[in-house]
Amino acid sequence: MKHVLIIFLSILIVPVAFGQDEGWEQKFEQLGQTLPTPNEYRTGSGAPGEAYWQQQADYKIKVSIDEATNRLTGSETITYHNNSPDNLNYLWVQLDQNVREPGTNTLKTQSSGIRDSLPAKFAAQGLGISDYEGGFKIEAVKDASGSNLPHTINKTMMRVDLPQALKPGEQFVMSIDWWYNINDRMELGGRGGYEYFPEDDNYLYTIAQWYPRMAVYDDYEGWQNKQFLGRGEFALEFGDFEVEITVPDDHIVASTGWLQNPKDVLNKDQQKRWEDAQKSYDKPVFIVTEEEAIANEKEKGNGTATWVFHADDVRDFAFATSRKFIWDAQAVKVGDKSPLAMSFYSKEGNPLWEDESTKAVKYTLETYSKYTIDYPYPVAISVHAASIGMEYPMICFNFGRPNPDGTYSDRTKYGMIGVVIHEVGHNFFPMIINSDERQWTWMDEGLNSFVQYRTEVENYDNFPSRRGPAENIVNYMKGDKEFIRPIMTNSEQILQFGNNAYGKPATALSILRETVMGPELFDAAFKEYAQRWAFKHPKPADFFRTMEDASAFDLDWFWRGWFYSVDHVDINLDDVKWYRMRNEQGDVENKGVTVQQGELTAKDGEGEVMDFSDGPQPFSIIATDPRYYGEFQNRVDDGAIMDKMKGKNYYELTFQNEGGLVMPIIVEFTFTDGTSETVKVPAEIWRYNEKQVSKVFMFDKQVSNISVDPGKETADTNTDNNVFPRVKQASRFDEFAGENEGR
Asked: How far is CA 513 from CA 161, 467, 509, in A?
């Protein structure tokens, strides 16, 4: 590779006045005063400290579904381990189903209005017009001896008062009995519920947030008992689960965990296929075929069956059940383990699901394991359900339904593959690297969307990725700032949720990988974060600090710009000057050489032409004055330096930071012989002046064209001012300087 010599025509750095205005944000200021102070629990390096601790909650649950009434009934025993250094007088339990109870704060806190025409479905949802009675019905809360425990329900949270303080190192056992009416997702929406198929009079249940769950108690904020309003998702403790699920005896159940009793719930053929799937690495094995599922739809059984599952070290538990399920599975080699990639879907999902779902699960496990940790669980399941994408440990519910005749568009196909990758990917963020979703949506959705993008580009040709490519976030970034909030915003206060919590952080990490750090250093640091915080509770500072600690990159400017501000990228190539050194006679060498720039003209009032039509400007290199040597006795060879600089082309480029977000400057120079060369200037060039910088580049050849960010790597929102030659328009900095002239 040819190296470019970059020189300064002046060694003096003189900040211009408008770069130092009072109130101007210091974009290279360290985040030390913003991030929490490191301590024995969370270190300054971003790693867990020597005294790091977290709680554990283990569950034994029995649950049943009555298909005739669409009612779920459950009883659970929770063993809560106090690993904290604190005495606990009460425990907080999440009651997420109460988001649908009469009088829920979710409806009360939503803005609403009346339009001239409003679909009835949305009017019913927005105004709470429904016959459905939702919410947990808590029948009993008792201790291990069977005595009633005092408890107080505050909307989606329940405080359980303990007979005596739970001391460090102790555990407490309690039981809860409950039931609730399962919601119709078509009518009411929701992450879990049922879908009804009128053609064959069957239900498909996707059951989530279905049991009272322990809230997180941690070193960072104590109890995370912020109310659930529907958007900010979940903060949960790890634990072991033993779950018995009783359903109609012709149902097939997909669940978190490993099936403990296949001989009780599968026929002999299905048992054989189940065993074969565990050894099939090249293609999926059908445990329940489409023909069997269709036959199952028509002949409904009268009895029940109980499926038993066990899961270790999971933060949650979900399941799906239906007599409509087709079921396929394939083993995937990940490190020293062979988890099963599995899909459950009704005939309405075929042929798309048969062709694509389990393959996408496989690709996801392999790619995410490469970037984070080897997938530790025994199964990863994709369940087909209408109009949803939602994730839980080892299982997720995904949309993507062909037309009734089985045909489907590329949009449907890639949308389905994308959601499967995304939701299966959530096994890593936040199901294993267990961030607080109730507070920081971007820590699971943003990081997950970034690795989703890597999975798409590494396993599919020309995948139309929605989130990750820099140019896809441009329209959002340059939008009205009144409707944009920083990434570092609580889940319930975010505006433009998808762009803020998914798209922008995914793009930021892609830029950080490809443009700022480089793949090798980024990947090592990202993997270090995943390995440090697997099965733990990371916070934003732990991520920021680890990425710097493992890479030797000072990234405070990057976090401050991308995560704490609503600035955008707009680097304006404001001015270009071409220089050549004078020869001994004082003339510019090769002055007669000109560059043909074509038909570039400016109309009246539309700005000035920026091109090379005036030729190079002369400058002189003179002998070094002895005063500049100070106490040094030796001297540089002035003549040799002049000889090296003779005949070269020097280009002084001035850049304006129009958007406010400092970024590396990527410049492509195209020469008159048709060749080109790209130079990347680190973002730190802006550290002395955040609004305007100048840089000189030296070449043997003559430049014909210049382009900033030619590959659209930085999400620059205005590419019109990235090129030279062009007609220059007045920038906001020109206007600012004019308004303040004479100050």
From this structure: 48, 15, 6
Query: Would you say residue 607 has pLDDT above 80?
Result: no
The residue length of the chain stands at 743
CATH 2.40.128 fits 53-197+204-237, yes or no: no
CATH architecture, domain 251-434? 2-Layer Sandwich (3.30)
How confident is the model over 257-306, as pLDDT tens digits?
A: 999 999 999 999 999 999 999 999 999 999 999 999 999 999 888 899 99
Distance CA 26, CA 660 (A): 11
Beta-carbon contacts of 38 under 8 Å, excluding residues fewer than 6 positions away, are 44, 49
Say how far apart CA 388 and CA 347 lie, in whole Å: 17
In tens, the pLDDT along 264-273 reads 999 999 999 9
Tell me how far apart the alpha carbons of residues 59 and 317 are, in angstroms, rounded to a whole number: 10
Model confidence, pTM: 0.92
Structure tokens at 511: 């830029």
Q: What are phi and psi of 642, to 5 degrees?
A: -60, -40
pLDDT, residue 112, reads 74
Query: Domain 435-564, what fold?
Result: Neutral Protease; domain 2 (1.10.390)
Partners of residue 217 on adjacent β-strands: 223
- The domain ranges of the chain are 5-25+571-739, 53-197+204-237, 251-434, 435-564
Query: Taking a C-beta distance cutoff of 8 angstroms, is the pair 332, 339 a contact?
Result: yes
For 571-620, the DSSP string reads EEEEEEEEEEEB-TTSSBTTTT------S----TTS-EEESSTT-PEEE-
Cα distances (angstroms) measured from residue 352 to each of 71, 204, 274, 419, 633: 32, 18, 22, 13, 80
* Angle at 167 (CA atoms; ends 162, 168), nearest 5 degrees: 140
CA dihedral 466, 472, 476, 477 (to 10 degrees): 140
- Name the H helices within 46-189: 105-108, 120-127, 185-188
Give the DSSP per-residue string, 449-462: HHHHHHHHHHHSTT
Structure tokens at 727: 């007609």
Least Cα distance to 329 among 262, 388, 238, 385 occurs for 262
Q: Whole-number mean pLDDT of the chain?
A: 92
